[in-house]
């Protein structure tokens, strides 16, 4: 659910901060490797891959648990930060992929997932509904619910147009009829607005959920790609920068704020 996703995203942002500090002060191979491994272990624990403070897997597939534990062990035994970073990258990518699959699975489930009030952020059903044509559904529903009132408005406006000549001539009967038609139009418009209001609210909620889904997916991809790019830079012994990872962390924190404001 979104509470678990927020925990993962917070962990991703904290890891970006920790890695920036490690790369800014690296020089002691053993210390750097241990610090990196510890940071990734916290990331794995806080994102639900491992229980905090342990290298044992709980409630996840053993092949994933084996990968995480093995990569952490290899990172701690690495000769330098470059090698340690290569060893932990599969775990980092796994965290990002797991978050992406979580959102995609809920969106494709047609309403599976947490209900309203189970945690911050939109209900997964909102995402699924949008991806299955929710916007078209609500627009069609809006037309259906307001069609009677809109037909009344159209007919009254046409009738009012037919009274124009009588109004120009100061015809009292035409004036009274025009006033009556204006009242009919106003009442029908209020009826249409009242029918459309809850539909518009639902439509806005689904559109907001879609925007949040897209933003989460894009920020997660950017975070994972930035880490992979950093690994390649270290491997190629090019100048390294954690700026892209930090930028992705800023985007992630912004999304967290948006989720918590829902």
What does this structure look like?
The model is unreliable at 53-60 and 109-124 (pLDDT under 50). Helices cover 79% and strands 0% of the residues. The protein has 262 residues and is mainly α. The radius of gyration is 29 Å and the shape is rod-shaped. The chain has 9 helices and no strands. 31% of the residues are buried.
**Helical stretch tally:** 9
Beta strand count: 0
Tell me the overall shape: rod-shaped
Which series of helices and strands comes N to C?
HHHHHHHHH
Distance between the termini: 14 Å
Give the arrangement of secondary structure elements.
Layout: H1 2-24, H2 29-46, H3 62-76, H4 81-108, H5 124-131, H6 134-161, H7 164-168, H8 172-235, H9 243-261
Helix pairs in contact: 1-2, 1-4, 1-9, 2-3, 2-4, 3-4, 4-5, 4-8, 5-8, 6-8, 8-9
Summarize the structure.
The protein is mainly α and 262 residues long. It has helices at 2-24, 29-46, 62-76, 81-108, 124-131, 134-161, 164-168, 172-235, 243-261.
Could you name the key traits of this structure?
262 residues; mainly alpha; 79% helix; 0% strand
